[in-house]
Write a structure and sequence with these properties.
Blueprint: E1 3-9, H1 25-40, H2 45-50, E2 53-54, E3 57-64, E4 73-80, E5 87-95, E6 101-110, E7 112-113, E8 118-119, H3 124-131
Antiparallel strand pairs: 1-4, 2-7, 3-6, 4-5, 5-6, 7-8
Length: 132
């Protein structure tokens, strides 16, 4: 399975004066999606960091189609774009409970060796987990 879904409700604090989700909060929603995508395969960001690997975002693109509002039940669909190399690329779609598409996004992260602070190949345990 190369995709994963998570759902949650918009909190009041995530909305702006117009009553809609502040655009900056969508980056956090995407992070929630990719963290849970990895967790689905038995991989956690915490364990990767403990093994000397970090995954900083190097590219983020979002296209807003419709606004989310307080108490909306949102679903983030996270898909792996292609087999990871030194980068891992995700595509996202965020829907409301009426199944209306709110946001399309793409995020690229780089595998970085925490000791050298240099790019590295995707760890074998990640490749094995996602190909199983």
């Amino acid at each position: 399975m190369d995709f994963n879904k998570i759902s949650f409700r918009v909190r009041y604090a995530e909305t702006d004066q117009m009553g809609v989700v502040y655009h900056g909060n969508y980056a956090q929603y995407l992070e929630m999606g990719r963290v849970e995508w990895l967790r689905h395969f038995g991989i956690s960001y915490k364990s990767m960091e403990e093994n000397g690997v970090m995954l900083p975002v190097i590219s983020l693109q979002m296209s807003f189609k419709k606004s989310a509002v307080y108490d909306d039940l949102l679903t983030v669909v996270t898909k792996l774009k292609k087999t990871p190399s030194v980068k891992i690329e995700f595509e996202f779609e965020i829907f409301n409970e009426k199944n209306e598409l709110l946001v399309k996004a793409e995020v690229v992260l780089a595998f970085i060796n925490m000791k050298t602070m240099r790019p590295m190949k995707c760890p074998d345990y990640v490749l094995q987990a996602i190909s199983a």
